[in-house]
C-alpha cells in the first residue's frame, strides 16, 4: 500500500505541468511576491522570486528577484542578478544599486545602456536614460558625486522639467549653487477650454518618450511649461517673487564666534507632529490581487501588469482619475498618483474631473513654489528673507517639521543661538524621529555652552538611532564642549564611517585637530570636506584660520575670500578677513571689511574690537576709544578690552583713566598679571612697542 501511495503521489506531480501552464505559474508567483513585499516579508519574497527565475529566466523575472534583494538591503546581490541588463527598468535598478555602492562608472553606463559619451558644453545625453525624470535625477546625482557640477545641474533641471513634483531634484540644484527661481519649475499649466479638452489627463502631460512599449512600467511625468509664469504661492494672500544665487552648507562651532544677537523673530507655533500630508509619498497604484484561478484567454491582456514595477504602473488603457478625494493639500498625492482601472465616466463628468485635477495640481505647485523659495533663500543665507517667506505659510504647513527646521536654520545662520535653541528644542520634542538638523541643534548648544542639554541630547539620539551619522555628530559636539577632543574625534570618525559623504563631520573633525594644534591633520580634514562639497564654506573658513595662525596671510586671505563668495552675509568671515588685511598692513581694506561685519551683525563685539585695533595702528585714538567703549558695553568682563582701553587712554594723555583700565583688566584676568603689571609700571613712560597686546 505504501508503495502504491508513493507512486500515486509521483503521478500527481508528473501531471502538474499539464494543469498549470507557464503563464499561470508566473502569474501566481508574481502576485505572491508582490503580496509579501507589501508585507515587508523580504525573505519569503526572495524565495518565491528565486523559484520564478528558476522557472523562467526572463529579464522581467530577474527584475523581480533583484527588487526583492534591493528591498531587503542586499544591494550587491541585486547587482549580480542584474548584470548585463538590457531592459530599461532593469538598467535603472542596476544603476541605482551601483550608485549606492559608489560604483559611479558602472552606474552611469547602466543608465546610458553601456554607451559612455563625452560631455560637450551644455549638452547632456538623455536618449537612453530610462524611467524619465527619475532616471535624469539619478544621472544628476552620479554627476554631482563625480564633481561634474554643470552636468549635474543640467540633469537635475531636465528632471524637473519632466516632473515638476520631483522636489529632491530642486534641493540638489539649490545645494549646487544653481541660479534658479522656484517659479521656473513650479508653475501651473493654464486650464484648457472644455470644448477642446479630451479628459483630465490633458492637464498632466506624461513623457513616455523613453518607454519601451510596456505601459506597466511607465510613470506619470508632470512637465513644466516652456514659458514660466509668476504663480508663486499665494497661500496666505501674498505674492513673493524669488531670484537667488548659490547655496551652501552650515556654519561650524568656533570660539571666535561665541556671541549672539537679539532674536530676529520667533517661531510662529510650537512644533506639532503633523507633517505634510499626501505629498511625502504615494500609495501603490495597483490594489493587491487575491489568489485566483488560472488565466483564460480573456485575462491574458492583464497578465503583465502583475509584475513588480520600480515605479507606478499606469496602463495606457486606464486613464488616471484625479477627481477622487476632498479638495485640499492632505490627500493630494493620492489624487495625483492613483491610477483608475474603472471605465471612464460619462462625457458630462469629464470637465468636472479635469477642473478638479487642475485645481489639485495648482495647489500642489503653489505649495512647492513657496517651499522652494524658502529653501533657496536659506541656501544662499538670505535668512531674514527666508523668515519672512516662512511667516506667509499656512499654519498647518508652518507647524510642520520641515518648516520649523528652516526657521531654526535661519536663526542659526544669523548667530541668534538662543532663538535657534528654542525652535530646535520644540521641533525635536514634537518629532523625535527627525535626524536632519541635529548637527545644527548640537552646534547651537555648543555655542551656548549648554553642557547638560547637549549631554542629554547626545544620549537620547544615540540610543534612538545608532546608525544615524547625525547622532554621532551630536555626541562629538558634546565631548568637544567638555574639551575631550580625542573622544570627540572618535565620534566624528564614526559619523564619517556611516556616511562617507557627510561633509559637516569632516569639518568638525578639522576643528578638533585645530584644538589639539595638529594643523596637518586639520588641513587634510578641511580639504576632504571641500572635495565632497566644494561649496561648504565652513571648510574654507577653517583653512583660513589655520593659515592666519601660521602667519601665512596671503593663503588666509584667499581662503576667507573663497568662503565669502559662498556666504557673503557672514559677519564672522568679514571679521576674519579684516584681521588678515590688518596683518598685511592693508588698513583701509581692513576697516572696510570690519565695517561690513559690524553692519551685518551690529551686536558683534569681535568686529568692533578688531576695528579699534586697526584704528590704534592708524593713531586714530579717539575713534578707537569710541569703538572700545561700545565693545565694553557688550563684554564688560573681557580683560583684553579694558587693557586696550588703558593703552588708548595713555596715548591720549589720560593717565588716571589708563590706570583704572589696567587695574580692571588685572582683576578680570589675573593670569596675565605680568603683562598688565608691566604696563602699570610704565604708565608714565612713552610706549616703545605699539603692538603689545594680551
UniProtKB/TrEMBL annotation:
Alphabetical list of SMART domains matching this protein: TPR
TPR repeats: 133-166, 469-502, 503-536, 537-570, 639-672
Biased composition (Basic and acidic residues): 294-303
A GO CC annotation given for this chain: anaphase-promoting complex
Any one Gene Ontology BP term: metaphase/anaphase transition of mitotic cell cycle
Biased composition (Polar residues): 216-229, 251-263, 308-321, 336-354
Main location: nucleus
InterPro entries: TPR-like_helical_dom_sf, TPR_rpt
Region Disordered, residue ranges: 197-359
Pfam families assigned to the protein according to its UniProt record, in alphabetical order: ANAPC3, TPR_16, TPR_19, TPR_7, TPR_8
Gene3D superfamilies xrefs: Tetratricopeptide repeat domain
Compartments in which it is found: Nucleus
Keyword vocabulary terms for this entry: Nucleus, Repeat, TPR repeat
Transmembrane segments: none
Homology family: Belongs to the APC3/CDC27 family.
Descriptive protein name: Uncharacterized protein
